[in-house]
Write a structure and sequence with these properties.
Layout lengths: L1 E2 L2 E2 L3 E3 L4 E4 L28 E6 L11 E7 L3 E9 L7 E9 L6 E7 L8 E5 L7
Length: 134
């Protein structure tokens, strides 16, 4: 997968709606993943090659089929889907998806299915290794 000048065969996906190129990204308590949006681009603390699909604090309660799912088609198309809830009371469940196809480099599709109305704010976009790539 490629985003701007960053390319790798592995990705890192977080519960907070990020997809990052590469697997040697440290995502742990107190790290970038816990610092949820919204923030304005360019994001100075960004990982190289990151898609901010819906960067907001999200969690998986283990109910209602919540989780992060992926599908690879023909070895060149990747879809990652998030079905998670925010930390509000009562929680709001969000469903969104990113689709990447290697045959159309530079084109990434984001899809949002819920909530139709309401909910919080999130950072959405793509940023490369250079903070000017956004």
């Amino acid at each position: 997968m490629s985003l701007y000048t960053q390319s790798d065969t592995e990705i890192t996906v977080t519960t907070n709606g990020l997809l990052t190129i590469g697997s040697n990204i440290s995502v742990s308590e107190g790290s970038f993943d816990n610092a949820y949006g919204p923030q304005q681009f360019p994001i100075l603390a960004a990982f190289p090659g990151t898609a901010y699909v819906f960067w907001q604090y999200m969690q998986c309660s283990g109910t209602d089929n919540q989780g992060i799912y992926y599908q690879i088609d023909n070895g060149d198309s990747l879809s990652v889907e998030w079905l998670l809830e925010d930390g509000s009371t009562p929680p709001i469940v969000y469903q969104y998806l990113i689709n990447y196809n290697a045959s159309t480099p530079g084109l990434i599709n984001f899809y949002y299915f819920s909530p139709v109305s309401g909910g919080g704010a999130a950072t959405i976009g793509v940023q490369g290794m250079d903070i000017n790539d956004s």
